[in-house]
Amino acid sequence: MMADDYTIPQGWDRYTDEEHRTWDTLYERQVKLLPGKAEQSFIDGLKALDLGRGGIPNFETMSDELESLTGWRVVAVPGLVPDEVFFDHLANRRFPAGNFIRRADQLDYLQEPDVFHDVFGHVPMLTNPVFADYMQAYGKGGLRSLDSGCLKNLAALYWYTVEFGLIQTDDGLRIYGAGIVSSASESVFSLKDPSPHRLHFDLERVMRTDYRIDDFQQTYFVIDSYEDLFHATVDTDFGPIYERLQGVDEKYPVDTILNEEEVIHRGTQDYA
Ligand code: PHE
Ligand code: FE
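^ inputs. structure came back:
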């Protein structure tokens, strides 16, 4: 039975051996790819939560561990949930994760986020205290924005950070976005391919940018640190930004480079 907040029991006992094997296959493939590509908090988070112990993680056990680190828990939902439900979970340090797993013949492509994307992709970053606070602030900001008419702008911020964010480190560019770290092809493409632009993160610019949900991104935005991302967003009152954006229907197309912006890599856009 689904509760008012859309949560359901994970039903861990109902996963089949084949479903557990699908997790293991995806897990092993990503873990091989990610050294030198994923930012260290992600790698540390995987270890801290022991997500490679074999099989689809049990949300209760995983949440007990995660809660002891940053106060977050993972709750099961049937799939995508309404915006206000999603924001309310985040605002209360609950990460809603799909409980189903993709079929064995869909390892590389799926339309709806499944337990591999949601847990492998998102949950390790929630062990980073600054990122964990950012996610909660995002949820609170979402609740506040519901009547602003600017949900699409807030969604673009989530998209280009939480899902597809890159970060500059002392060892070079790294990935931290869940959509990237959970994808074998995009974890390579986003970092190494000459095609996409890689631009320095700027809050309002990102909020005005279109995004694509059907293929690799044409532009990735790069933060300098999670602290920077936190301060750029949490210390800014979005009210005036929403007011400014009310009037502008037009989004920056996904391959735009603005005159004044900081370009880390000017993409060839050959892939697009
Ligand atoms: N500071 C934002 C506001 O005033 C809230 C927010 C924080 C939004 C972090 C997104 C991320 O609404
Ligand atoms: Fe996601």
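The domain at 12-265 is CATH 1.10.800.10 (Phenylalanine Hydroxylase). Residues 113, 117, 121-122, 163, 178-179 surround fe (iii) ion (ligand 2) (CB under 6 Å).
thumbs up if we can close this ticket
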